[in-house]
Amino acid sequence: MPGTVLLIAASPAGRGCLVDAASVLPVLAAVPPAVLAGADTANVVELADPLEPQAVLTRLRAAAAAPGPLTVFVTGQLQLDRRQRQVHLALARTTPSTARYTALPWSWVREELRLRAPGTTALLLDLHADAETWEHLRGTPLDSGRTSAVYGRIAPPPGRRTVAAPSYMKAVATILRSGRRPPLAQLHQQALARVGSEGYADLVLGVPEASAPDPHPALAEAVQSGRHADAEALAARHELDAVRTYGPGSAQALHWAEVRADLAMFAGDAVRSCRGWLSVASARLAAGQSAADPEVESAVDRAHHQWGLVTDPARARELGPALAELRTRVPGRREGALDHVRRRLDTLAPSVLSSDRGA
Predict the structure, then answer these.
(1) pLDDT grade, residue 18 (50/70/90)?
(2) Number of domains in the chain
(3) Both 275 and 337 in a single domain?
(4) What are the pLDDT digits (tens) for 108-119?
(5) pLDDT interval class at 5 (50, 70, 90)
(6) Same domain, yes or no, for 90 and 120?
(7) Separation between Cα atoms, residue 174 and residue 30, nearest integer Å
């Protein structure tokens, strides 16, 4: 059965543009449609800097109704509408004050894809966020629905008067130009490795499939409504039950430890999230998993990512040596990861010493 591919590259015109989204389209267009879709044949629909949210919705709805596998590639930037504070994909005419009317509500993406059969839909995302939206997303996950595989990254705003490049999506396209589409989790990791240290501040997206556990419905509801303490308490109870029933190094206990680390991320507590991922990585290694095991690599990568978001120098200095020690054993696939930790520790040292002297 033929697959369907929808390529969306959208960003505002003028000074509000954070990312040169359309620059990725020529690279994606050079990939054979069947490879983009992961199918024998495929239909490809391309939307370059669309103007109207209804026009994007029409294309999205048609793609969602097509039989066979669907892969949606989205490159662009996210903004909040100022009235309802809902996340939108900015389009060509979008400004901060007009997002509600000129941008595509992300909830439309979720709703159009929610009725598709689990396992038939994949989203590959390379998104940038303005400062306000970035802070919002650090505490509230981007909800793309529970029936789609979601991979990619959300990057913080670039420097003033700087337009970022969609480096993650260009890396995806470059890998696919080899003529083969690897499993999406592998493609995602390869793309992150190519992005390298540039992406250490990003929010990394990785939801394999609808049937996998990531948070359960009650946890997701608590996070969406801002009840982070309730979500943490519920997950902690489940982790304790799993430890008592199956043992501290069991898959069940580690799953709930990972959930708690993710919940800390959604709550904006980078220190607790980093500490949680460090514990998960250490536990997996202690249980005999290889340093090259994807679950171990992912745990260390996530700890590294959260450590990069710790703004308190003393806390960052406290967590850094444990991360550096893990990085010597689990270098990961991003070049220069250990050097990145060491350089930041070097820059943190004077701040910590000054802080101690002042106290």
Answers:
(1) very high
(2) 2
(3) yes
(4) 898 888 878 778
(5) very high
(6) yes
(7) 9
Half-sphere exposure of residue 50, counting CA atoms within 13 Å on the CB side? 25
Same domain for 234 and 192: no
Say which residues have a Cβ less than 8 Å from residue 319's Cβ, sequence separation at least 6. 271, 274, 275, 278, 307, 310
Residue 126's H or E segment, with its range, is strand 121-129
Query: Are 176 and 259 within one domain?
Result: no
> Residue 345 in contact with residue 317, Cβ under 8 Å?
yes
Distance CA 36, CA 113 (A): 18
- Cα distance between residue 80 and residue 94, in whole Å: 11
**Residue located via tokens 């809902």:** 86
Query: Where does 50-127 have alpha helices with state H?
Result: 53-65, 99-102, 106-113
Between the CA of residue 323 and those of 140, 320, 350, what are the distances in Å? Answer: 26, 5, 19
Q: Are 62 and 85 in contact (CB under 8 A)?
A: no
Question: Is-contact 215 259, C-beta < 8 A?
Answer: yes
Residues 115, 194: Cα–Cα separation, whole Å? 34
Residue ranges of alpha helices (H) inside 177-269 are 184-195, 217-224, 228-246, 251-266
pLDDT score recorded for residue 207? 60
End-to-end CA distance of the chain: 68
Nearest CA to 328 out of 316, 339, 313 is that of: 339
Mean pLDDT value across residues 227-241: 90
Residue where the block lists tokens 């015109």: 13
Query: Taking the alpha carbons of 122, 127, 132, 135 in that order, is the dihedral positive or negative?
Result: positive
Q: Which structure tokens are listed for 343?
A: 């350089």
Query: pLDDT tens-digit profile of 200-233?
Result: 667 778 765 443 337 466 777 787 788 899 989 9
